[in-house]
Amino acid sequence: QVQLQESGPGLVKPSETLSLNCAVSGYSISSGYYWGWIRQPPGKGLEWIGSFYHSGNTYYNPSLKSRVTISVDTSKNQFSLKLTSVTAADTAVYYCARQVRTGSYGPYFFDYWGHGTLVTVSS
Amino acid sequence: DIQMTQSPSSLSASVGDRVTITCRASQSISNYLNWYQQKPGKAPKLLIFAASSLQSGVPSRFSGSGSGTDFTLTISSLQPEDFATYYCQQSYSTLLTFGGGTKVEIK
Fold first, then answer.
1. How far is CA B77 from CA B53, B62, B64, B81, in A?
2. In angstroms, rounded to a whole number, what is the distance separating the alpha carbons of residues B73 and B99?
3. Nearest residue on chain B to A107, judged by CA atoms?
4. CA distance B88 to B33
5. Measured between beta carbons, which residues in chain B are less than 8 angstroms from residue A65?
6. What long-range pairs does B46-53 form, CB within 8 A, spacing at least 24?
7. Is the pLDDT at A103 greater than 90, yes or no?
8. How far apart are CA A97 and CA A90, in angstroms?
9. Do A100 and A34 meet the contact criterion of CB atoms below 8 Å apart?
10. Which residue(s) pair with B87 in the sheet?
11. How crowded is residue A82: how many other Cβ atoms within 10 Å of its Cβ?
């Protein structure tokens, strides 16, 4: 069974960098698939942040691209999110998820999700 | 960006009711449309992928249809555990986007 678990500080000061890790078990990241980050501000909808492929291809939401970095540590089977220069608008529950598709050209979808971690931006 | 618009934003229904939720894309997305269910304090759960394919383990009372710009999620007979918020998501564009959500509440 594939499981994902987010971890990181629950409180970040404005203008600082938000850093989160996503530990994956039950599947090796280096075996394939995309892996992504999605966030959800309190009481609001879902926003895709970015995704990476195990071989290194990474793509980001243009609205966040200048501040986001997603990286992977295959030795620990985990990947991470860094979001710089945070403001209160970045307060959200952050989820990591596996992004898969059926066949070579089918739609991508998120089939396994972490439980999510709330990050509050406040001084 | 491809905008995803869900309607209604909320609805009240009774156990046993047939419920239909609509998702409209701002441009044609073929069948690159997925549906998720989210309960309070929980991560979203995949229900339907590729517009009409039922994810393994999801009850058959859930079904999806549509292609192009207009899609529907139908719950044939609403059960107590189905009260939740439902989101559509497109993956036609590399900029993945979600609809605003439809909250299904108890009447």
1. 18, 9, 14, 11
2. 13
3. B32
4. 7
5. none
6. B46/A109, B46/A110, B46/A111, B47/B73, B47/B86, B48/B73, B49/A102, B49/A106, B49/A107, B49/A109, B49/A111, B50/A102, B50/A106, B50/A107, B50/A109, B51/A107, B53/A102
7. no
8. 19
9. yes
10. B36
11. 13
Collect the ranges in chain B with pLDDT lower than 70: none
CA distances in angstroms from B30 to B5, B25, B35, B67, listed in the order given: 16, 10, 15, 5
pLDDT tens digit sequence for A13-30: 999 999 999 999 999 999
What do you get for the CA distance between the two ends of chain A, in Å?
Answer: 39
Q: Which residues of B touch A (CB under 8 A)?
A: 31-34, 36, 42-46, 49-51, 53, 55, 87, 89, 91-92, 94-101
Q: How many residues does chain B have?
A: 107
